[in-house]
Structure formats: C-alpha cells, structure tokens
Amino acid sequence: MVRVMACSAGHPAYEAIARENEFALRAYFTEDYVFHGPGGDLTFDELSAYFASLRHAFSDLRLLREQIIVDGNFLAARTTFSGDFTGVFNYSPIGPVEPTGQHIEWEVIGIFRFDDEGRAAEEWVQTDYRGLLTKLGVTTTEAVQQGSYS
Questions:
Q1: In sequence order, which residues have a C-beta less than 8 Å from that of residue 106 and are 6 or more positions away?
Q2: What is the CATH number of domain 12-141?
Q3: Which of 2, 16, 17, 110 could join 25 via S-S bond, C-beta 3.0 to 4.6 A?
Q4: pLDDT reading at 144 higher than 60
Q5: What band does 76 get if pLDDT is binned at 50, 70 and 90?
C-alpha cells in the first residue's frame, strides 16, 4: 500500500524534484522507472535531466501534489508546479524558450505505480502543453516554427 502525504517541502518527491538532491531522487524512483508523457516515454536519466532543466528555468521551483487518490500500489494526483521564469527552459515542449521573468504556474495530472518498497516505478502524465507555452510567453507562430505541440 502506498503511503499518502501531500507533496510539499520536506516530502521525498519534493526534495527529489524541486531541489537538487541526487540521493533523494534516486531513493524516490526505481532504477528502471519509466515516465509516459505527452511527448513520449522518458527513462530515469532523461527525467532527471528534465527536472534539472526545470530547476534552472524556474527560480524557487515549487510543486504541490493535491487531490491524491490511492488504489493499491497506484496513486493519482493533480500536481501544481510554480516558479519565476528566470532562466532558459531547454526542455520545453518546443525546445529552448527564453525567460520572461514572470511567475508561472501549471498543472499536470499523473498516475503513479509504486513498487512494494514505496518507490515510484512508472508514471503516466497528461498536461496542457498549449496552455504552458502561452504562460511561457510563446506565440502560436513561434511554436509552429520551432516544432508542433499538442
């Protein structure tokens, strides 16, 4: 059974993602972890690079996991990410995006599968890429020129 706790400062997922803490990241995710997202699957190392890009692009990165539902080793949650867009976001859905200095918030819906030791083994995520790009200050024309998005 998965132990449920809101994801905020001090929670293992928060420390693993929002703060640069390789030990916490490796402790929270299994080595063969797979992320299934709107843009395709990511390995643990690819997801780790994505988290690093978030920390670089968004100063004071925060995440708050809300509306948590648990069923056996599965957990579903709505997670709100936020931060000040002060660095280049290299892993945006369309590639590098220059910072605007604006405070940005966006939500993702995730379903996690945990192993018997309580580590995240697999995750399925959906998010509104178009809405995120708009918040990042990207126009539809720029997005089309850099690569399509959903």
A1: 80, 81, 82, 127, 128, 131, 132, 135
A2: 3.10.450.50
A3: 16
A4: no
A5: very high
In 6-87, DSSP assigns E strands to: 29-37, 40-43, 58-71, 74-85
Residue 2: the pLDDT is: 44
Domain ranges of the chain: 12-141
CA 13, 52, 79, 58 dihedral sign is: positive
Higher pLDDT, 29 or 10: 29
H or E element in which residue 111 lies: strand 103-114
Residue 150 and residue 103: Cα distance in Å, rounded? 23
